[in-house]
Amino acid sequence: MTVLITGANGFVGAAVLRRLVAAGQAVRALVRPGSNRRNLAGLPVEIVEGDLLDSASRTRSVAGCSALFHVAADYRLWVRDPAPLYAANVEGTRGLLLAAGDAGVRRIVYTSSVAVLGHRPDGRPADETTGATLADMIGHYKRSKFLAEAAVSELVAKGLPVVTVNPSTPVGPGDVRPTPTGRLIVEAARGRVPAFVETGLNIVHVDDVAEGHWLAYGKGRVGERYVLGGDDMSLRQILTAIAWLTGRRPPTMALPHALVMPIAVMAEAWARLFGGEPFATVDGVRMARAAMFFSSAKAMAELGYRPRPAEQALRDAVAWFRANGYCN
Predict the structure, then answer these.
(1) How far apart are CA 83 and CA 16, in angstroms?
(2) What is the mean pLDDT of residues 141-156?
(3) Cα 252 from Cα 262, distance rounded (Å)
(4) CA dist 291 → 6, 115, 200, 257, 324 (Å)
């Protein structure tokens, strides 16, 4: 039987696709017409063109499939118009999973995000049990993923066989776009990040996230969610590691959040007037006020998930960006 994957031409989706192919699965990929398919080159995958928001596309893509990996998402931390983001992440997810249920798909892995989890007041890493509300979500991307996961939970309660995974901050090869974290790595590798704010991220190799998807498919419990993370690192540690990998001096200047906020406001205003994406965003600065640290203990205990060290993930990311001309 065929396995359907959405978002296969994206960063995480392509890694999941490679893992499915390595496992000997017959894979079908739902991709939008005209989208960048660089990550699909040379892979034995059946391509179905369509759109998550189109009912006919959803029905056609899931027909005859035994499993679904719904990885696709509109991942933008700043948008002029948030309506398309909510449409794709919330309504697209709901419609696709309903179509999968109608088609008799027996197993669904839904890719959520640690963005929907809360923060512990004592600073300990958050996990699947760390509660949060919609009001806690900073920015439209986090809100849309929170609402999408709530929609998935409603469908599970109605009998849909969904296992949810919550990746942290993936880095590694294949970040074609690149993602916001990928852009940070590229700029740091080029020596263009002279300072930092005091914050932290949970860094994980994208191929380990893909392995976590496969493990969730085989061992995950329906209705449960699993954090797929790696190592907690301060932003200073991340930038120092990249500097060491590229032979540069690491930044030593820590900027207060209060100083960075007006810069983000001006960057967003410039983007609205002249186009493009701002190099700093108000929501990004607001999120940086709390370190985004997470525990993968549940996935390790129940799925056998074993991520490699974050330093290796950063090494592979820098090597890929260099080899593909991003750091020139």
Answers:
(1) 28
(2) 97
(3) 21
(4) 30, 12, 4, 13, 31
For 211-229, write each residue's pLDDT tens digit: 999 999 999 999 999 999 9
Reply yes or no on whether the pLDDT at 283 is more than 80. no
Based on the residue annotation, tell me whether 141 is a catalytic residue of this protein.
Answer: yes
Q: Which of 75, 86, 110, 141 is catalytic?
A: 141
Distance set, CA 150 to CA 131, 154, 228, 229 (Å): 13, 6, 19, 21
How many degrees, rounded to 5, is the angle at CA 274 between CA 272 and CA 280?
Answer: 60
Contacts of 191 (CB under 8 A, 6+ apart): 246, 248
2-174+205-229+294-308 has which CATH code? 3.40.50.720
**What pTM was estimated for this model as a whole?**
0.94
CB 177 within 8 A of CB 191: no
What phi and psi values does residue 161 have, to the nearest 5 degrees?
-85, 75
The residue-averaged pLDDT of 235-253 equals: 95
**Residue 130 CB partners (closer than 8 Å, separation 6+):** 117, 118, 119, 120
Structure tokens at 114: 């640690």
Render the burial of 124-144: b for 16+ CB within 10 Å, e for the rest.
ebbbbebeeeeeebbbbbbbb
- The residue behind tokens 């008799």 is 104
CA distance 294 to 231: 8
Give the start-to-end residue ranges of the domains of the chain. 2-174+205-229+294-308
pLDDT digits (tens, 9 = 90+) for 247-260: 999 999 888 877 77
Per the CB < 8 A criterion, the answer to whether 224 and 163 are in contact is yes
Q: Which pair of structure tokens corresponds to residue 74? A: 């509109």
